[in-house]
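This follows on from our talk about sequence and fold. Can you supply me with one protein entry, sequence and fold together? Could you add the entry underneath, on a fresh line?
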Amino acid sequence: MSDNATRDIFITGLKNAHAMETQALSIMKPQVKRIENYPDVAARFEQHIAETEGQLTRIEEILSSLDEDHSKLKDMALSFTGTMAAMGHTVAGDEILKNSFANFAFENFEIAAYKSLITIAETGGYNSGANSLKLNLAEEKAMADWLDQNLPAVTSRFLSLREAGDKAKV
């Protein structure tokens, strides 16, 4: 594959990753505002929101180093779909559980996207970009691990609150 083709694929992937992280924010921010009975979940989401904002900055820096910019259209489209996804669970009686499942799936999607981007970066010789993307990947893995490890506790808390007749959904 030519250097130009690899560069084009890398740039497209970076723009997609930027839109993906914009979507992640549009999912997490409404969710965290609604959380009432799961303070540990809210605290971890606040931390990951800050991490995600840093990830966006890293992607923008890589794009800038390539004299490129993120796609405002892709960002807007995925932000909209993220907001709709977050709103879709608000009507569920088990909103916290549905959000937990969806968030775990989304984190693993992000992990796969970063693994692919890192491979492209390394193949194309974009080593500084690969290093930045590895930081993003590590944060996504940490969040996915946290969600995985805490799903039983969130589920137990949901059951306890529901059994006590308290508001359990968020």
